[in-house]
TrEMBL record:
InterPro entries: Adenylat/UMP-CMP_kin, Adenylat_kinase_CS, P-loop_NTPase, UMP_CMP_kinase. The chain crosses the membrane at residues 72-91. SUPFAM superfamilies: P-loop containing nucleoside triphosphate hydrolases. It is found in: Cytoplasm; Nucleus. HAMAP family: Adenylate_kinase_Adk, Adenylate_kinase_UMP_CMP_kin. It comes from Pseudoneurospora amorphoporcata. This is Uridylate kinase. It catalyses: UMP + ATP = UDP + ADP.
Length: 319
């Protein structure tokens, strides 16, 4: 699906380390199979990503052929194993101080099952910023960027940029979803966010970063997928605002925003999606004790004061 989202979306190549690991073991497995003499099963250490994999030359349900140990020298296999393991360890060691590889992505997870996230939560701080449409998420994020050096990634902005990108195969789909206040399939949004995070870190030549992920996750599948393959969130900043106030703001913004969804009909649909689909995400994180709620009914200054107070409370003064 995503292979033709140039740069912006799925970089479907496998994680380099897992690729190296898998390739090394495939090579080793085929070396062993080619002898036709031995039946050898390779499995990876439990703490490796490929821990569940096993390569075997045994046919399913088959029994091993008779061993002819007296005709085979065992040491070449030991030598191959030692060399491959040594090479792999060297590569891992060299890579650990490098910025994230653009080709290292969650997509490895799709190929190889459950994976570790692309970014370590010890290096990367992710704060999800949620709230209904018009709750003031973007306004508060801009101030947090100014004062705390966060990188602000708005899922809606990334989707609009992808929609407008010439040649995007998702342009029409995104446009339809946005107009109807519906949720864009999570693969697209998760990939856009992951790529934007990676681009930010690569440009800064660092592994460490702080991201405000605005307007995301809006649906449970987005939440689960993102935390599984991109990065677990440290906290959810939830801006709580009554619908009438949000509607008033959106209609006001609609006079100049040029957005296809800042009109009465789309706003109604967006509110419904928010209540039915996005609020369960807030509840999910609330059960994990990750939600910090801020009343965003007052003006931006007051809301920001409350936001800073909450961040200090959670992260401390040096935040
Ligand atoms: O956050 P914003 O109001 O800019 O989002 C605009 C629209 O983009 C949403 O109504 C929805 O159609 C889409 N969107 C989405 N998934 C997200 C964020 C936005 O599908 N996580
Ligand atoms: Mg916004």
């Amino acid at each position: 699906m995503a292979s033709s989202l140039p740069r912006q979306a799925f970089r479907l190549a496998s994680s380099s380390t897992t690729t190296i690991r898998a390739a090394a073991s495939r090579r080793c497995a085929s070396t062993l199979q080619n002898t036709g003499k031995r039946t050898t099963q390779w499995s990876f250490p439990k703490n490796s990503n490929s821990g569940k994999r096993a390569y075997s030359s045994l046919p399913p349900g088959g029994s091993p052929p008779p061993r002819e140990t007296n005709k085979i020298a065992f040491w070449p296999f030991v030598a191959v194993f030692v060399l491959a393991s040594g090479g792999y360890m060297l590569l891992v060691d060299r890579r650990k101080d490098m910025p994230p590889n653009p080709k290292s992505t969650s997509s490895a997870a799709a190929v190889e099952g459950p994976s570790t996230p692309a970014f370590s939560p010890t290096d990367v701080t992710v704060i999800f910023v949620l709230g209904g449409p018009g709750a003031g998420k973007g306004t508060q994020c801009a101030r947090l960027v100014r004062d705390y050096g966060f990188t602000h990634l708005s899922a809606g902005d990334l989707l609009r940029a992808e929609q407008d990108r010439p040649g995007s195969q998702y342009g029409q789909l995104i446009q339809d979803c946005i107009k109807n206040g519906a949720i864009v399939p999570m693969e697209v949004t998760v990939a856009l966010l992951e790529n934007a995070m990676r681009d930010t870190l690569t440009a800064a030549r660092t592994r460490k970063g702080r991201f405000l992920i605005d307007g995301f996750p809006r649906k449970m599948d987005q939440a689960v997928k993102f935390e599984e393959v991109v990065c677990p969130a440290k906290m959810v900043l939830f801006y709580d605002c009554p619908e009438e106030e949000m509607e008033r703001r959106l209609l006001e913004r609609g006079k100049t925003s040029g957005r296809a969804d800042d009109n009465a009909e789309s706003i109604r649909k967006r509110f419904r999606t928010f209540v039915e689909t996005s609020m369960p995400v807030v509840d999910y994180f609330e059960k994990q004790g990750k939600v910090v709620k801020v009343d965003s009914t007052p003006g931006p200054d007051k809301v920001y004061e409350a936001t800073r107070g909450q961040l200090r409370r959670v992260f401390g003064d040096k935040f």
